[in-house]
Amino acid sequence: xxxxxxxxxxxxxxxxxxxxxFKIGTPLILRKEPDNPYDQEAIGVFSPFxxxxxxxxxxxxxxxxxxxxxxxxxxxIMEECACVVRFITEDAIIAQVYPFKTLDxxxxxGLKDYEDLIFEEDEEDLFDDEFEEDYDESDxxxx
Length: 143
Known about the structure:
Elements: E1 6-11, E2 27-33, E3 42-47, E4 51-56, H1 70-73, E5 80-88, E6 93-98, H2 114-134
Antiparallel strand pairs: 1-4, 1-6, 2-3, 2-5, 3-4, 5-6
């Protein structure tokens, strides 16, 4: 197991959404891309909702001092793992890597039949009508 924290520089964001999706504390996904035609040790950076945001830097000039390149961490992480944005500067985005964790993303989207929506509205109207029929104003005159 790794005992030290791993930090990486995220590059290439200008080719996707820029820096806008990156906020300190944002959880992201790192995914190995062994079929990448430009770099066999490429690691893509993904948002669960936006898709690809960039890459873990794999060149000295694009990596911030003190961070590790994609080549250095490639064999030390799973095919997909989590990272969290920790620092953002004018020139860099730095994330902490969690090599043995993945993001647990849950959201629920479903379809509802239009007829069900109408029935629910009619059901509410029926309840109101029943209430009015059982208790009209004349019943309250004795009180």
